[in-house]
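Known limitations

Files may contain more than one protein. Parsers should not assume a single record per file. Below, a two-record file is shown to illustrate correct handling: read the sequence, read the C-alpha cell line, then continue until end of file.
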Amino acid sequence: MPLDRSQNPAIHHPLRPWREGVTPYQWLVLLVAWLGWVFDSMDATIYVIVLHPALEELLGGASGMPVSPATIGWYGGIILSIFLIGWAIGGVLFGVAADYFGRTKTLIATILIYATFTGLAALSQDWWHLACYRFMTAVGIGGEWAAGAAMVAEVWPEDKRAKAGGILQSAWAVGFFLAAAANLLLRGYGWRALFLVGVLPAFVALLIRLWVKEPERWVQAHRQELLSGTAHRIKIPDLFHGDLRRHTWVGSILAFVAVFGLWGGANWTPTLIGALPDMQGLGQAALAGYVSYAIMAFNCGSLFGYLSFGPLADRFGRRPAFALMCAGSLVMLPITYLTPHAYVHVLLLLPLLGFFNNGLFSGFPIYLPELYPTRLRATGAGFCFNAGRVLASAGPLMTGFLVTTLGSFGRAASAVALIYLLGLATLYFAPETRGRPLPD
C-alpha cells in the first residue's frame, strides 16, 4: 500500500518548498534566536583572534618584554579553560531558569550578560582580569543557547524543526565572519577595540523584549506545573530517571566530544597560521590579516556543515549525521595541522575541517530538544550541551601540555582528534528521533 504523505506532516512533499507553511512569527522567533547566537559566536571568536596580542601586552607588562609562544599557550589555555567552565555553568543554570521563568526572559538576561562583560574585557590590566571577564561572558553565552534552542524547537512546525535547528547553528559561522571582519577593520586600533564591539548584542535583547512572546508549549506546561504544585521543584535529578538517564548520558558525551575537539584542536588555527614558514617575520597587523582570512575560510566550510546537518538528519537520521561529522573531524584535524607547509595549503584544508568539525554542532539544537518533554526541555538541552564542557575545559590545557611534550601545535591538535572515536562509540547507544513528534 503506498504511503500517504498527507497523513504524515514529518514527510515533506518533494515538489513543495520546505519553507511552505512557516508563519512570519515563526521566522521572527528563529531570527532573534539566530542573532543572539551570532553575537555569541562573535564574542567567543574575538578572544581567539586577540589571544596573542592581548597576552603579549598583559604578560609583558609596562616593560614590553617579548613573551614566548609557550607562555602565551599556557596562559591562553588557562583562560580558554576558564571560559569553558563559565559556559558550562551558565548553560546548566540558565537552562533550568528557562524552564522555570520562560524562554524569552532568559534569552534577554543572558544576552545582556555576555554583551556587558565582553565590553568590560577591554579594560583588562592583567591576564587574570581578562580571565574573569571571559568567565562571565561565557556564563551568558552558555545560557543563551539553552533558551534559544528550546524556543525554536517549540515554536517551529514538527516537520521543519531539523532545518530550523541547522539554520540556528549556522549563526555561529556568521559570528566568526563578523569577528574576522571587525578584526580587519579595527586592526590598527589594538585588541581592546575588538572587545568593545562585543557590546552590540545588547540591541538584540531589546528586539526580543518588544516582539517575542513565550512559546505556547511552555505556557501550557508551566500552567500545569503550577496547578500540580511542582513548578518550583528541582529538575536536574529528573534528567537521570527512567529512559531520560540514557538520553542525558548520550547527549552529554556527544557534546563533550564536540567541544573538546573544537577548543582543544580546531580553535588553535591562529597559532597554526603564525607557525607557518611563510608567515615568519610578518608584523602583527599583517599577520592579523592572514589570520582573519584563514578564519573566514574555516567558517565557509562550517557554514555549509551547519546547513547540511538538518537535511542529512532528515534524510538519513540523526545518528548517521552525527557519525559522518565525527568521522570527518577525526580524519581532517590531523591532515590540516600536520600536512601544510604554506599558507595556501591551510586555506584549502580549513573549509573541509570546518564542515565536519563545526557542522557537528548543528546536531545539538536539533537532537537535544527532541530527547526531553517540555517541562525539562531547556534544562535537559542546557545540561547535556554544557555539562561536558567542565571536562572539555581540559582540552585547551591538554593542548598546551601536548605542545611542550610533542613539540608543536600540529602534533598536539592531531592527538586531540582521537576524542572523536569516543563520539562514534557513543552513537551506538543513542536513540534515533527522526520522524518523532516533540515530546510533550
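...continuing to the second record:
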Amino acid sequence: MEDLDELWSRCSLALKDSVSDAVWNMWLSKVQPVDMAGDNLTLGVPNSVVRTRVNDRFLGLIRDAASGESGRPLEVLLIIVDADDEIDLDFDEPEGDFGVVPAPPIPAVPASVAARATGSVRLDPRFTFETFVSASSNRLAFAAAQTVAETPGRSYNPLFIHGASGLGKTHLLHAIGNYVLENYPTHRVLYVTTETFLNDFVEALRRNTTVAFKRHYRECDVLLIDDIQFMQNKEGLQDELFHTYNDLHGAGKQIVLTSDRAPKSIETLEDRLRSRLLSGLLAEIDPPDVETRLAILRTKAANDRIVLPDDVGEFIATNVRDNIRELEGALTRVNAFATLTNAPISLELTQMVLSDIGAETKLITPDMILDAVAETYGLSVEDLIGPRRARPLVTARHVAMYLMRTLTDYSYPSIGKVFGGRDHSTCISAYDKIEGQMRERRQIYEQVTGLIHQIKGSG
C-alpha cells in the first residue's frame, strides 16, 4: 500500500496542476487510492454523485496522470467506499473548466466492462443548437441536425456532415447529443471520435473482449462518430463500422457521422460502407461569409461577457476568413490584452494585438509548434511529449497544446496522440487553463502571443 499511496500522491500533484482549485476541492480531493492489481488502478469515492461527476468529467485526466506517473498504461476503476451520499451541488464552477451533461449514477460493473465504458468522449454542454450560429454556409447541416435530434432514427438516417476543419461539425454532433439527452431521458447517446473507436476496437481484440465492444456500440440509441476520414486504409475498422451500422439502422437507431470530405472523396473506403453512408442525407458546411463570421464573434463575446465594438468585430471578421477556431482565438487574444492592461477594447488596440492576422503563411504543423515551444522554454521536444511533470514543463506543455488547438486543424484526441497518447480531456483542460491564464498573467500572455508571431512567421 505504501507504493500505491506514493503513486497517488504524485498523481494528486499532477491533477492539481491540471484543474482549478474549486474543482480540486469539490471533486478530485475526494478520490482515494484503494488497490492496484496488474494494470488496473482502483480508486474510492464517497458516494454515487461524486463517482458520476468524476467518471464523466475527469476520468481521462486521472488515467493520464496515473499512467504518466507509473510509467505504464493503467485502467482506472471507481468504486464507492463510503455510504455518505450527501454533497452540496449548489455551487458555480468557474468558467474554463470543461464539463459534460450530468448522467445518472453508474452501476457497479466488472473492471473489463468499466474499461470499455470509458471509450466514449464526453459531451460538452457548451455546444448546443442555441450557441451555434446558423447561416447560409451551414443552414442545411444545422436544420438536418435539429431534425434528427428532435426525432432520432426517423429521418435523415444516417446524417453525414462534411466540411473543412474548424467550421462547426463537432459542435453540431455535441448539440445533437445534448438535445437528445435533455428531451429523451431513456435514450443512450454515444459520441466518439474515429480515433477512440479505433482504440476501443484494437483494445477489444487485444483483451479478447469483442463481445463487450460490440454491445457497447450497438446498444445505443444515437451513435455520433467524428472525423471518419481517418478510417481510410483501416479495413478491419471499416468492417466493424459496417456491421455496427447495419445493426443500429435495422433497429431504427440514429447514426450521425462527420468528415472533412464527402464519402466519395474518402480514399480506400469500402464500397459497401460508402453506399451505406450515401443512403442518408449529405450536408456540407462551407466556410462562413463575413456576416456569419461577425455573428460568430458577437455570440462568443456575449457568452464571455466581452464588450465588442462594431468596428473591432468587423476588423477581425474581415481579416480571419476560413477557420472559426482562429476567429475565436483572435478575440481571446484581444480580450486578454485589454484585461491585462485595464484598457477598453478598441480598433487601435485590436490592430496592434493582431498585427499578424491576414498574413499568408504556410501550413503550420505540430512539429513547428513543438520546436518553437521547446526553444522558448529551454526544453527538449522529448520533454514536452514525455511523462515528466515538473511545473515549468507542465506550463510549457499546456501552452503547446493550446497553440496546437488554435493554429492547426488537429482535434483534441489527435493532439493527445502527439503528446505521448494523452487523453483528450487533458488537452481540453490545458486549452481552457491557458486561455484563462492569458487574461490573468502578463507573462503567459506574452509567451503565447510571442509564440504565435514566431510560428506564423516561420511558416
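Parsers that stop after the first record will miss the second one. For reference, the second record is described as follows. The chain has four domains: 2-107, 139-285, 290-353, 366-458.
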